[in-house]
Amino acid sequence: MSDVPTIFRVMVEVGDLDKAATFYTELLGMAGRRIERASRHYFDCGPVILAVVDVSGGGRKPRATVTDIYFAVRDIDAVHARANVLGCLSKEQVHGEPGGEIVVRPWRERSFYALDPWGNGLCFVDDRTLFTGKR
User: Fold this and answer.
1) What are 5's strand-pairing partners?
2) DSSP label at 62?
3) Against a cut of 0.90, is the pTM above it?
């Protein structure tokens, strides 16, 4: 296929842009940038932008993503520590293991799960253990 589509932006809905920008800045360890006209805050995550979008201005309640968003990170322990301080570590079980703990999953990724204040699922994976289906 000569024209392979590329994912360039993933959006999460929130109900308070300032609170969301602060949360994601702390969790991701980077400030991102405000897009005023669109009630958005963008975080450059490699070639894909994480767009945090405040939908409350239109009277809507934010809808959580239907699946987790996966981030590859160099220092999973540092990200886990920030997530712990933010109190957003998952309390769910993932394949019989605590989702909020750094664990080697059955597919051999070392990862942990978290939730933002609006219920959007996030997973952070040690970038040395990524499973891409090519192994």
Assistant:
1) none
2) P
3) yes
